[in-house]
Specification:
Elements: H1 3-15, H2 20-35, H3 37-40, H4 44-53, H5 68-78, H6 84-91, H7 96-103, H8 106-112, H9 118-129, H10 140-151, H11 156-186
Helix pairs in contact: 1-2, 1-4, 2-4, 2-9, 4-6, 5-6, 7-8, 7-11, 9-11, 10-11
Length: 189
């Protein structure tokens, strides 16, 4: 079984029944990751696997700390023996260090899981922040507004996502620029 096939199977097993909307979101994020194959090259399978698994830490079967990036990455490491790069992307997806700081677990996250290559981190941010909770495409601004409204501006998630917004927008711009460069280079003259 290949990495992406394994990742889809595991994510479905952990999310589809207890959290069908989260599963739909994960499928949408993975679909977006597939669309970025031209800019991630040899890491396309890795990005897609991390995309479909990025929210696995929400699964009630494994949620331990209540901080889904850390719970998901620990589960992948301790119980699944996952690819290390997938674990790192799951651990650090969508500016997780800022939320970890809000929750008082930044040092744990940094110590246990190294950051992955910045281009892949940006790509996963792009995929997550341009996908609605139902798995359809959206803009980063609409996605950020939806998160703040869903959780509330004064909650941990609300505060974190507002702090992370400038970096999220910057990551999305970097990915869009890379896509445009690749597209421009592939157009016939």
């Amino acid at each position: 079984m290949g990495l992406t096939e394994w990742a889809y199977s595991l994510s479905e097993a952990m999310l589809s029944e207890p959290l069908p909307r989260r599963w739909a979101h994960s499928l949408g994020v993975a679909k977006c990751a597939r669309s970025l194959r031209p800019i991630v090259g040899d890491d396309a399978e890795l990005l897609e696997a991390a995309a479909v698994l990025h929210d696995v830490g929400y699964s009630p079967a494994i949620a331990a700390t209540g901080f889904h990036p850390l719970d998901g990455a620990r589960f992948l490491r301790d119980q699944m023996g996952s690819d290390e790069r997938v674990m790192r992307l799951v651990a650090h997806h969508s500016c997780a260090l800022l939320e970890a700081e809000e929750r008082g677990v930044r040092e744990e996250l940094e110590t246990e899981f190294q950051l992955e290559h910045p281009d892949l981190v940006d790509a996963l941010i792009y995929c997550d922040m341009t996908t609605t909770p139902d798995g359809t495409r959206t803009t980063p601004g609409e996605r950020l507004d939806e998160i703040v409204k869903r959780y509330g501006p004064e909650t941990i998630v609300g505060r974190f996502i507002q702090r992370a917004a400038p970096e999220i927008h910057a990551a999305v711009r970097r990915v869009e620029q890379r896509v445009a460069q690749v597209s421009a280079g592939s157009q016939p003259m």
